[in-house]
Design a protein that fits this description.
Helix content: 40-55%
CATH topology of the largest domain: TIM Barrel
Order of helices and strands: HEHEHEHEHEEHHEEHEHEHHHHEHEEHHE
Number of domains: 2
Shape: globular
Strand order of the largest sheet: 1-2-3-4-5-7-9-10
CATH architecture of the largest domain: Alpha-Beta Barrel
Structural class: alpha/beta
Number of strands: 14
Radius of gyration: 23 Å
Length: about 400
Amino acid sequence: MPLVDMRDMLNHAYHNGYAVGGFEPVSLEFVEAIIQAAESCRAPVILNFVEFHFQHFDFELLLATAEKAARRATVPVALHLDHGQTLDSVVRAINFGCNGVMLDASHAAFPANVALTRKVVETAHSCGVMVEGELGYDAGVQSVGEENASHVGETSLTAIEEAKAFVERTGVDCLAVSIGTVHGHVRGRTKLDIERLKRINETVKIPLVVHGGSGLSDDQYRKLIAHGVARINYYTALADISGDRIRANVKNNGHDGYTGLVKGLREAIRIEVERCMVVWGSAGRAAEVIVRCQSWEPVEHLIIYNVEGADDSQIETMMARGRDTLSQIPGVRRVSTGSAVRGQSKYRFSWMVQFTHPKVIDSYREHPNHAAFANQVFRPIAGDRISIDFLMTENIRSRQIASNKGH
């Protein structure tokens, strides 16, 4: 249950006057620290994966780690692709396990932003996945550090008159707004346009998101939340704290190896994440969020079948083609094929296709790639078959090895 529908999570925050933290992990230490903080605070949490940071880690591997940690957690967790660059990036993130996605078209003109975001909504919603849109642009020109180069150009505040049209035309589930925050380190005090935020919230009436959440005062956070902000993205401060911890370790003992250099890193990140959760009001909300959120569980599409009119080599060629073709369909997490261990088995062959969400059952069936393969390649030689969809629940905690705390 702890991996939950992100749409439900943000709606609960929006209607109950608090914000969920969207914390970005860039390593295993970050994943562990963020989940530990959420469990310590009994808070819902979102793990953000930002595409322009994928150069620093293998997205598929780190997301798989985060998903395992989320399913093992005792608090509600969601997994989100942030600042996706293309529709292909969005599909890849969905198929890897994200249950929230964002295509960053904020730099584009309004009509192009609407068109691109609408395509994402159509694709993601067919997979049950929540979509964030962004209107306005939070640049990095006022900042210094790694985020500056990733957010070039000038800041463009969200236009109030465009917000309602954007939400109506795209069908997004939440909206990232530009009201004065910037990505990276801010020079001086951030000036927020709270009146603009208030009017946007009154207009669109859906959860709002603020990017560039580091460096604000507690009072500024409270004002954001009071006017509809249900998620605050937070990375720069965590990166700074991590860098400070490593530099301190070098200063104290410059001859340490890797484990010595990252000593205390998880604890430093955890303390800061806990602070945010308390300030933003998500601490102590886990139990009520779990009750009100749908669990995010995969569906296994099982087919067992016999083949007529083809030899084993042709069957293997057919299955290899199917694994390649079907795995590209949005919402398909993986495709496995198998042969019976015992030759006398009633059904000799099998497909196991894992869907990210029950909605994929219909979208997969109707997808042109599936229809072409099934009708032209598979069904003509597999008339004797059984197909069943199973909603899967996995008890991960029961297999958890002993904790390594204190080692």
